Structure prediction request, 705 residues.
Amino acid sequence: MKASASKKPGTANGGNSKQGNNARAQKVKAIGGESTGNPAEAKKLFNDGKKYFMGKGNVQQNLETAFQYMAAAYHWRGRCYQGMGDFQRALYDFTLAIKLDNQQQAKPQDQAEHYNFAGQCHQELGQLDEALKHYEIAVKRDPTNGNYYYNRALVKAKLEKLEEAIDDYNRAIENLSDQNYIYQARFNKGICLRRLGKLEQSIDDLKKAVEMRNDKASAHNNLGLSYFEKEDFEEALNEFSKAISIEPHSFHYNNRGLAFYHIGKLEEAKKDYDDAIQRNPDDPFFYFNRGNVFLNQGDYDNAHHDYDIAIKNASNNPKFWHSKGLAFEGKSQEEIKKNGNSDHVLFLQEKSIEMYKSALALSENFISSRFHLGLMYHRTNQFHKSLKCFSNVLQKLPEDKTVYIARGLVYQDMGNHQFAVNDFNQAIKLDNNFSEAYYRRGVSKLKSRRFHEAIEDFKTSLELDTNQENPGVYDGQGCCYHALKDYDQAISFFNIAIEKDPSNISFLMNRAQCYYDLNMFTESINDLNMALKVNENDPQVLYKLGLSYYAFNKYKKCIKTLKKALINKPFLTYEADIYYHIGLAYCNLEKFEKSIYPYSRCIEMIPSDIRYIHERAKAYQMIEDHEKAVEDFSMVIKKNPKNAHAHFRRAFSFKALKKYSEAADDFEKAKELDPLNPKMVVNYKKLKGITCIVLCKPGEEKIFN
Prediction:
């Protein structure tokens, strides 16, 4: 943003877009004499000098008089060239004047004046070191002339020697008599003090400057900037408004817009940026600042429009690319909240990553972009890249607790809870009262099954969260008590969490799971349907709801819900179980043929899980595809030779294939493996016409070890 004032940069979890920008630059000129010469006077002096130089009589006296006139002539002609903007010729003349006066040992004050004007020419030509040398000599020759201190201060300020510049402005104020020059010295001193971060002193000097020249828009504007950097935005507004009333310049509107922005008056800020753009449509920072207003209002399309114009006008500014990244990131989060993850969300996240990379290509030390790039890599499951980003940020900001939290969350999602806890411990070490760090550590301890330790962390987090702004603390305690099978306590905490955040899908899912484990399927289904009102396409909620319908024997609803979950791309770890329960539901509806495909998909995903093979074997048997049934039962038996049920059911398929010997062997083996099960004892004479004997419901096969 375009003001020399800026809000202090935020830490790396946020990459703070509320920054100030450079103030309207004011052209500051050296002082000390009129800026234009007197051509007639210069000509007369030059001719007089020639007359004495060529005159008769005392040669030494004639030469001294000639040099005196000639030095003055060169001086005045130099002033003429200076007034015309021809600083190189002017410098030549002032240099000759210096040489001539040195030869005749002229008065120190005269010499000082030549050095002063030569210094001005060097300054205008950008030769600051030479300018400084000349001003040093001018001050030495005439230490009571305030102009020279002032001019030296200007150069020192440009050379970033701000403390020395301030000292010179003080000497200038002591020695100047012209009130306009004293005003200018106070004005510039106030700016130097602001640049050093000495805001109270800066405000004091700029206030005095305003008292001297209340009609100067630049004085009010710069006083406003010092208030702005002090984060006294109301006073800054007042001063920027006075500047606008005197001179309605685009920069003044821009600066007032920044002040409005920082106190949250976004519409007023946008109006000021509109006025700034109307007055100067070519300044990229005005569009950038207005884009930040749109970004904070969630109007991402208009934010992109303004950022694009800013980039078109100044493509080498990393802040512009970074802010486009924030706009893509914000839009992706908005889409996730509305509709869950989707291809469009992934596109937005990838665009965000692209923008942050562009910012870093322009400035590899742009920490905010590196931090947000880490966040986006995390959200797109590029965990190792995310860790690299956060570790890079921590090398530069080793005491930023929010970055430790961000990296810890990546470890948490990777299931590396020891590393996660280490990062959360570091955040707590940096700030022992950091409520979020205790909460995050509690979550990792919960997932590590350290339930009692987790409960203590959640309690500590709650004690430190005086405003009780994080209902996740209650949800975490609910999950701990749920795991400890203290269901009443668990539901009590889940209730508090949901009361504080009724639309939180995770809280509703956790309470639903608790009800599910208590066989309270109606309550479980109610919670999951409430979650779907928040996001009707959330695949994880649909998965859990499908399981609840299955447990509640609502098989048709189960199948419909689980198929919808698959369409919306659930976690990969859920997919096999989703297909498995679709298959089971079809079998419970006695639609065995329809169960074959979902069982086959399960086996493709996890070929080592014999449950899926066993259930498909039974389904093949029920549709009388006995060869495939025997093949699947044999695979189950190979993986688990003690599986009596597989032997028993395979026997019926062997019988159907008229392999009576193999069938008899299987019946006997099943009885041997499960001798206490009366169903295993069969009367061979009564087996005719019996396709199979069902030992259990689909999905309830006994585990044989």
